[in-house]
Amino acid sequence: MVDLVAFGIAAALTGMFVVLHFANGTEWEANPDISQEILEKRAAAVPETSFPEPMNRSIGGGGGAVAIEGGAETGEDGELEEAEPEEQSPAEMPEDEIEYHEIELAKQGETIEVASNETILDKAEDEGFDLPYACRQGQCVSCAGHIEDGPAEDHVIHYEQETFTDEEMEEGYTLTCVAYPIADFTLETGEAP
Ligand code: FES
Question: Which residues constitute the domain of residue 109?
Answer without folding.
Answer: 99-189
